[in-house]
Every structure is written in C-alpha cells, then in structure tokens.
Amino acid sequence: MPLALLALAVVAFGxxxxxxxxxxxxxxxxxxxxxxxxxxxxxxxAYALGVVxxxxxxxxxxxxxxxxxxxxxLTGLFVVGNIASALxxxxxxxxxxxxxxxxxxxxxxxxxxxxxxxxxxxxxAARAVSRMFxxxxxxxxxxxxxxxxxxQQLGWRSAFLAIAVIGLAALAALALFVPHQPRxxxxxxxxxxxxxxxxxxxxxxxxxxxGFGGFFAVYSYLVPVLTNVTGLSDSSITLVLALYGVGMxxxxxxxxxxxxxxxxxxxxxxxxxxxxxLVTFSFTVHSTWPALVTITFIGALGSFITTxxxxxxxxxxxxxPTMAAxxxxxxxxxxxxxxxxxxxxxxxxxxGWTSPALVGAALAVAGLGLAVTGGLLNRDxxxxxxxTSSGTxxxxxxxxxxxxxxxx
Length: 408
Hints:
Layout: H1 2-24, H2 26-33, H3 37-61, H4 67-87, H5 91-117, H6 125-154, H7 156-177, H8 189-196, H9 199-219, H10 222-230, H11 237-261, H12 263-284, H13 288-304, H14 306-316, H15 322-348, H16 355-377, E1 384-386, E2 395-397, E3 401-403
Antiparallel strand pairs: 1-2, 2-3
Helix pairs in contact: 1-3, 1-5, 1-6, 1-7, 2-3, 3-5, 3-15, 4-5, 4-7, 5-6, 5-15, 6-7, 6-11, 6-14, 9-12, 9-14, 9-15, 9-16, 11-12, 11-13, 11-14, 12-13, 12-14, 12-16, 14-15, 15-16
C-alpha cells in the first residue's frame, strides 16, 4: 500500500524537521525570547526529554486504542506542540512547548513501524518500515535546511508554523490512506509492559543506546571538526550536512531488503562497518574529499543499523511490539545524549578534534558485542514472532525475517 506508507513517511518527515531545525535557529530563538544561545540549546534537550518520556508513556496509555486512531491522536498532539512553539511568548513557555512536541515522537515512530509492517506482502516488513524511516532521512536533506532558511528569513516562529502545516498534511494523509487496524484481544498496557521484560528486548535497546551512541559521538561535533581540522568554511557546512543526509537515505534504502533477508547479520555488519568508518574518519578528516566520502559512509551506516534494531525489537516483543518499537526511539535519544557527552569528555581531556571519532568507534564495537551476545543467548530453539496482522499471524526471525500473511 504505497500511499499508506507515503502517509507514514510524511509523519516521519515532520518529526525529523522539527527535531533538527531548532539546532539551526538557536541564535534567532535566543534573540527572540531574550536568552543566551547556550540556554536556547536547552530547547533541544527539552525535545529529547519529551521523546524519552513520551515513547513508553503514550504508547502505554494508547495500548488499547486502534492503531490508526492512535496515529491520528499523536499527530494531532505534534501539530499542537509546533503551534504552541510558534506562539510561545517566553522562554519558559517555549521550553514547555518543545517538551510537548517531543512527547509523541517515539510513539509515532513505534506505532507507525508496526502499522507499516502490517501493510505489505510476506517478507517485506523491514522494507516497509525502512520506507517510513525515509521521511526522517529526507528531512535532513530538505526539511531541516528549508526550515532553517525560512526561520532566518521570516523569523524562527514561521519555521514552527510551517512544520505544523506539514503535520496537518500528515493528518489528512493518515486519515485518507491508512487502513483501520484493530487491536488484538490481548492488547493492553500490561501486555505491552510484560513484553518489554524480555531479555532480548532489553539487549536490543542496549544495542541502540550504545551502538548508535557511536554515530552521535561524531555527528554532535561534526561542524567544529570540519572547520578546525578539515578547513571547510562555515558557508560549506549546510551542504556537508545535506551530504550526510544523502548517506542516511542510502543506508535506509539498503537496510530494508537486507534486514528482510538476514536480520542479525545485517545488524552485525552495520555496527562493524560503522566502527571501521569512524576510525577511518580520524585519518581522512585532514583532507576535504576523503573526509566528505567518509562522512557519507558514516551517515549511511548510522541509519543502516536503525531498521534491523527496530525489527529485532518487534520480533522479540512478539505479539506486543508497539511499546518496544516506540522505546527504540527513546533509546536513540539517549544515544544522542550519551554519545555527545562522551565525545565532549574526550575533547575536554585534550585528546584532539579527531578523538570523538575514536570514541564513537569504541561505542560501535561495544554495541556489536552486545548484539552478538544477544544472538548467542537466543537459544530458545524456536523462531521469534513478529505480528504483522491484526489476527494471529507472525513473522519469523532467527537468522532471517519472514512475514506470514494472515487475514484481518
């Protein structure tokens, strides 16, 4: 159902744009509400906090709500949050508005991933989920630069209003194109929380926090590294970040088919290659073109591991995958904070501008170790189930993921 997947991708596009556009408008926001730029930077943390808290809480509250209705409610909250951000008169109200906007982020991605996996033919669940995630990667190429440019020309409030319009378009697309998916008889918050206690789910979330932390250890300091070491001008940075987004898009496109064929090997390969690319970047960063090529690979590999982690969590949560899928995005935001913190410690210790890349490589290796440990502990003697219909159907996953078709 390409139109339904497109509707989900539009939601992801709006989420990615509102999450990252704030970073490019910090000086304008700081002037607008009368605070320093570092204080304005706390608005990014407010959004991330909303994601971490909102993913499990809103998913739990909506555990018995049919998926389409829940998607509409969460997208409506996203629209309200962006309108509130645009109209916020003070720093305090803007902080609260950004926190509110972040609340539905993880839940929307989690519910959307489950819905996407139930829209497609057997053996294509990961591809469907990756198509939704394309909206997030395209946001880094188009949405974030456009939102930043709009905010710089017409004021930062106009950027949030434009994102609210994207949310309204997503609401219309969801209402028109996503089919109704009733919850099963065992749905409910207790059922979802019980699935979160599965050891494989816990390990999968740890892989996301640690392994993806390697990506953010570099991404968080990419601009100062490129200007201070590579010697790029400030005017070139927007194009470099767009190139990063192109890499993320390519990685997402490649990850879907490979995850459908071999879930765990795809995850292992992604983490190993990410570690190698980060080490390579510590050498290539001194020359412009090698640095740009490596940046593209890092962007691709960072997004490459997102799909197999998402599908692994959905597989191991079995017939209650929604909260696990949503919590994955809480884990990614913790990875964002943790990776940036550890990269900053390396810089503060005087290890040089290339040290965040080596810290990131170590985190990717640690994430690979956790992923391999999870694979070795997966000795229950039977293939895991990913529910892909509102009936009792399941997709199998051991060394690969396949999806069984079942009538609703």
